[in-house]
Amino acid sequence: MKRDLKNKIKNEYLGRAYATFCGMLIIILTISIIYFIASKGMKLFILNNQSISEFLFSKVWDPEERKYGALIYILGSSAVSLGAVIISTPLAIALAIFINMISPKLGEKVMQPAMELFVGIPSVVYGWIGISVLVPIIKNYLGGVGFSLLAGILVLSVMILPTITSIATVILYIISGFVILLYSKNIR
């Protein structure tokens, strides 16, 4: 009896010490990464005498002349993100309605596991498929080089669709349960 209690206490302290060590290691690594990125990034503003407003609002990107303007990249990223959300959100809500209300059995057995599986696919895989499949299709049918806003929007739309669908499914499930609860209280 004493031996079991002694082992439990020993294991608990070891577990707590290990969890504390891992937590502190994560904090130290995070601070180190932030320091590294900030110190390398600050060189642009300190050594090149470039202002933050020039960096954020200039369109000129010329490393040979040490001019770095990020406006085009910021606007491009914003346009791709906004376009992907505009495309994915209605589709995700429609999928969530299908999973929860139209065909709950099919949704629970097939659609929900598929969505959870797609959430786990790394973004690098989506990007590789976009570059190797989508970009050549856009290049052949629409012209140009294929690397475009359309390609980015479509790849990001496919990438975020499962996440938005999973969130919308849970929200609809909670809302439907809440409505049923309110309706059952009003009947009495």
UniProtKB/TrEMBL annotation:
SUPFAM superfamilies: MetI-like. Keywords: Cell membrane, Membrane, Transmembrane, Transmembrane helix, Transport. InterPro entries: MetI-like_sf, Phosphate_Transport_Permease. One of its GO terms (cellular component) is plasma membrane. It is found in: Cell membrane. It is a multi-pass membrane protein. The chain crosses the membrane at residues 21-38, 70-102, 114-138, 150-183. Gene3D superfamilies: MetI-like. This is Phosphate permease. It comes from Clostridium putrefaciens. The gene is pstC.
